[in-house]
Amino acid sequence: MTGKWLIGLIAGASLLGARAGAAEKVDFDQGVDVSGMAGTSQSQPSATGAFKTYSVSAQAQKHAKGFVPNKNGSARDYKSVGDFHMSEAIPNTMDLRPQLTRIENQGQCGDCWAFSLTATNRDGHAIAGNDPGRLSEEWLNDTDPTYATPAPTYGCNGGDFDAANDLIKGQPSWNSCPYTAGANGTVSNPCSATLPRAANSKIKAWHMLGDPNNGPSVMDIEAQITRSGQPISIAIAAGVGDWENYSGGIYNGCTDGQLDHMINIVGWDNEGAAFDKNGNLPPGKGVWILRNSWGTSWGENGYMRTKMTDSTGLRCNEVAQQAAYFDF
After folding, report:
1. How many structural domains compose the chain?
2. How many CB atoms lie within 10 A of CB 272?
3. Exactly one of 109, 112, 254, 316 is catalytic; which is it?
4. Would residue 292 show up in a list of annotated catalytic residues for this protein?
5. Catalytic site includes residue 214
6. Which residue, 138, 134, 122, is CA-closest to 264?
7. Cβ distance 172 to 139 under 8 Å?
8. Of these residues, 261, 264, 316, 317, which one is catalytic?
9. What pLDDT digit, counting tens, does each position of 235-281 carry?
């Protein structure tokens, strides 16, 4: 297979797009073509257990990302565990996967932000018993006033949590605006901003977790998910280390880097560890369960389990350095 890699730098965040070409077929329902990857297993001395990655070569598949930190410079509302006034205890483990809707695939468009926010929106309603059905990421990609840059790329150049403002009045159904941007990272027939919104697709408000300087603690994140029973949207550094090539197990190839991708936290395992005074677990303890938007052939059927931190306390690939949740 031939073709060149597309690498773009946007406001300090990297955007890697898959190469285009007639031989590269992407099924947005089933996942990207990974035929160019060879499966291997690796383990590290600090690992709790082995994790598998795909070997990386010049022919390996790369995935689109697209996180651009707070491009419009808007003020944000931050909440932490002290604001929640919880009566329930945070459990040692939680796994929302059995209750979640489908894994999606953003293809070659850098609109991870639209997929993360849409997943948080739909699943928040669905878990409460009011599933609006499949919602349109394409509509966010094509019409967001901040991130829908000029044609033909529109929102494929990246976005951020602030696009959640678009969801206050609801979101159109997928059928009214099907996803097309993933084919090659461009849009030939953009959706209308005035499309009717699907029933049960509005949010009341959205908030960032933690504080602007340090981000959320583990307790902040787990408290919000415990009290709501709903996933949250997060930013991570997916373009460094072996993160992008993960295929199963508990990932422990932790490294730091610039935030460049948005996904969801959908569960955890605190491994029996207790929170410290700052609401975090001891270094190297704890596992997050993440949902990605790279199709079901990536990771564990589209999901990932990753250590929260390494043995020094470093956030594993900056996971959840920024995080947001919705009020429904």
Report:
1. 1
2. 10
3. 112
4. yes
5. no
6. 122
7. yes
8. 261
9. 999 998 889 889 899 999 999 999 999 999 999 999 999 999 999 99
